[in-house]
Amino acid sequence: MSNKNLGLSDTLYDYLLSVSSRESAVQRRLREETAQLPQAGMQITPEQGQFMALLAKLIQAKRVLEIGVFTGYSSLAVALALPEDGRITACDVSEEWTGVARRYWELAGVSGKISLQLGPALTTLDGLIADGHSGLYDMAFIDADKENYDGYYERTLQLLRTGGLLLLDNLLWGGKVADPGATDKDTLAIRALNEKIHHDARVINSLLPVADGLGLVIKQ
Q1: pTM greater than the 0.70 cutoff
Q2: How far is CA 103 from CA 113, 130, 205, in A?
Q3: Number of helices (H) and strands (E), helices first, in the chain?
Q4: Under 8 Å between Cβ of 20 and 47
Q5: Are 93 and 116 in contact (CB under 8 A)?
Q6: What are phi and psi of 87, to 5 degrees?
Q7: Among 64, 68, 122, 210, which lies 20 to 30 A Cα-Cα from 116?
């Protein structure tokens, strides 16, 4: 027994995937193509994608909001878990990266479930609120530029229904959040949001040491 999380060696991590991962062939191809990019570290891990898909199934999500698409692995994983009438509103600014995502959404047969919104996500979210979409989303995932995390958090809470689930990536930020000497803008933004969520009476929260730190928030 252990009273803290077990560190994963490469051998143990490979074992974890061997007995847990149900990654589809399309997902694997996308992950392998993305691994060749200089920005490959931005992609979520396969076990995180599978966990997100499980959560979508668990809460019977139909309307999902994603902020930060990159090459589309997370949206692909969740779209595969949604029912036929499920829909994802996916926000990103990069035509290049989302071009990769579109190819794999098509290959997996889920492109009809995903509405890609190209442009600054804060603008897209404000537009959704102005158009009367507040309280209509079941689940959301934030994995974009860290300086705007607080703005994404506040708008997403407004768009989620009561009982809706919000996931936030990179909340441990490679350990920098616990380093007093780390004072760059991204670290300060994540550190401040972690403290805010911890004391936010509007939500129930849990921060898990999954990948780079996965925050789970339920809107009360």
Answers
A1: yes
A2: 14, 31, 35
A3: 8, 7
A4: yes
A5: no
A6: -140, 140
A7: 210
95-108 and 73-81 helices, crossing angle to 10°: 30
Sequence-distant (6+) residues with CB within 8 A of 51 are: 210, 214
Pairing, β 214-219 against β 160-168: antiparallel
What contacts 40, CB < 8 A, 6 or more positions away? 34
52-63 pLDDT per residue, tens: 999 999 999 999
Q: What is the DSSP letter of 113?
A: G
User: Distance between CA atoms of 114 and 110, rounded to whole angstroms?
Assistant: 7
| C-beta atoms surrounding 43 within 10 Å | 20
Distance CA 113, CA 116 (A): 10
Contact 64, 82 (CB under 8 A): yes
* Integer Cα distance of 94 and 5 in angstroms: 36
DSSP 8-state class, residue 42: G
- Which amino acid would we find at residue 217? V
The conformation of residue 89, written as its DSSP 8-state character, comes to E
What does pLDDT average to over the chain?
96
Mind listing the pLDDT tens digit for each residue in 75-98?
A: 999 999 999 999 999 999 999 999
The distance in angstroms from the start CA to the end CA of the chain is 34
